[in-house]
Amino acid sequence: MTPGPTDPTNTGIKIVFFDVDGTLMHEKKIPDSAKRAVELLQERGVLPVLATGRPEFEIKSVREQLGIDWAITCNGAHIGCRGETVYHTPFSREIVVDWMTLAAEHNHSFLLYGAETMLISTSAECPLFLQARQEIGFLDPLTYETLDEIPEVYQFIAFLDETEQKRYTDPYEDEVALHRWRPWAIDLNPRGVNKSVGISTLLDHFGFTREQAAAFGDGLNDLEMLQFVGRGIAMGNGHPDLLAVAPLRTKHAGEDGILYGVENLVLASK
């Protein structure tokens, strides 16, 4: 049986979803106050879950440091418990082969997120990949020799501007969803997949309602989940467009924002 909440008598918020970068993590580290916030939830029988654009293998250390079992990864395309796949929505093989063939022809760099690995379509010395690594951090990706070596892919990060992107996305506009997070970088997921979809799947798994869920996030790929759950909480350092529409707001991630939000917006009385 997959692990779940420890206190079924809890009648308030029963599950809390956390984005990772810029939310649980600040400057590539988990603040002690964020660790304490997760402990408080667990002590009260509330289930903490990661909800990130990163793949399962890349957030393993975060999950284990915090004692969290469940993770929604790849912007909702993969759900795992202790690293094992429970639900997943991969890209079609047609798209994977087509895009990686084009990427090789035009020397474009893509990160490919599988359940247990991360590949790169070019050299890991790609300047835009190195810039992204400096800004938010990445583990070392692997390269591949043939398309047959590529496993199921749940998310691409494409280092492309909007004009270059259209070469890839226009032929599959009905099959692909995107979140642009830099002028030169985008997340690409199967159409209809975002963090709120992964959250809905996990709520059904546990028999919870959206009113019994809270979520913390800072980026535009957190927009759908903050609007979906009963208590959507934006970090004080969040993207301006997210802050403009988020139902609730906590402090900056570097100013104990997670602990403040958990104590005052999740565990406190309405």
From TrEMBL:
<dbReference type="InterPro" id="IPR000150">
    <property type="entry name" value="Cof"/>
</dbReference>
<dbReference type="GO" id="GO:0016791">
    <property type="term" value="F:phosphatase activity"/>
</dbReference>
<protein>
    <recommendedName>
        <fullName>Hydrolase Cof</fullName>
    </recommendedName>
</protein>
<dbReference type="InterPro" id="IPR036412">
    <property type="entry name" value="HAD-like_sf"/>
</dbReference>
<dbReference type="GO" id="GO:0005829">
    <property type="term" value="C:cytosol"/>
</dbReference>
<dbReference type="Pfam" id="PF08282">
    <property type="entry name" value="Hydrolase_3"/>
</dbReference>
<dbReference type="InterPro" id="IPR023214">
    <property type="entry name" value="HAD_sf"/>
</dbReference>
<dbReference type="InterPro" id="IPR006379">
    <property type="entry name" value="HAD-SF_hydro_IIB"/>
</dbReference>
<dbReference type="GO" id="GO:0000287">
    <property type="term" value="F:magnesium ion binding"/>
</dbReference>
